[in-house]
Amino acid sequence: MNANVKKVFIAAAVILAAVVLWNMFQYGTGPKTDMQPASGNAALKSPVPGKVLMLDLGSDECKPCIMMAPILEELKKAYAGRARIMFIDVWKNRDEAKKYGIQAIPTQIFFNAKGEEVARHTGFMDKESIVRQLTRMGVEPPEKYKDF
Q1: Which of 52, 65, 71, 131 does the annotation list as catalytic?
Q2: pLDDT per residue over 51-60, tens digit each?
Q3: Confidence bin at 26 (pLDDT 50/70/90)
Q4: What's the CA dihedral at 55, 61, 66, 68 to 10 degrees?
Q5: What beta strand segments (E) does the chain contain?
Q6: CA atoms within 13 A on the CB side of 50
Q7: Which of 62, 69, 86, 118 is catalytic?
C-alpha cells in the first residue's frame, strides 16, 4: 500500500471516530433499547387517565413505526378492556411531539392508571417487550401472551 492510500485510510478512520464520539457525546452511549424509567417527564399525564396506557408516538411513514403497526393493532384488540394502546402520528400532530418531549420516533410511553408516566422506550419495540412492560405495570396478559 502506498503512502497516499495509507493517509486516506487514516483520515477516514479519524473522521469516523470523531463522528462516533460526537454522537456518543450528543446522545449518550447510543440508542436506548431497554425500557427507561420515567425521569424528568414524570409531570406528563396520560391523555386518558383511569386505565394503563401505552402511547406510541411515531409516523405512518417511518419504517420502524410501520413495522410496529400490526403489533399495536393486535395488542389493542387483545388488551381491550384491560389497557389502552394508542398511536399518534407526530408528523401530522407536531404539537403532540412537543407535548411529550419526543426526540426520535418511534417512542413508546407507558402511563399507569393514575395517568403518570412510568416508562419510556425509543425505537422499535417488539410484542414481547410491550407485553412484559404492561405485565410489570399490573395488567394481566391475555392467555396467549402468558409465556412472554
Answers
A1: 65
A2: 999 999 999 9
A3: very low
A4: -20
A5: 36-37, 53-58, 84-89, 107-111, 117-122
A6: 3
A7: 62
Active site residue 65: yes
Q: Tell me the backbone φ, ψ of residue 35, rounded to 5 degrees.
A: -65, 140
Q: Is residue 115 classed as helix, strand or coil in its secondary structure? A: coil
CA distance 121 to 24: 18
Per-residue pLDDT, 6: 73
Is this model's pTM higher than 0.85 or not? Answer: no
Measure the CA–CA gap between 117 and 133, rounded to whole angstroms.
Answer: 13
Does the active-site annotation cover 12? no
- State pLDDT tens for residues 36-75: 544 444 445 666 667 999 999 999 999 999 999 999 999 9
Distance CA 96, CA 98 (A): 5
Calculate the CA 109 to chain-centre distance: 7
**Sheet of strand 117-122: strand arrangement:** 36-37, 117-122, 107-111, 53-58, 84-89
Pairwise pLDDT comparison (112 vs 37), residue with the higher score: 112
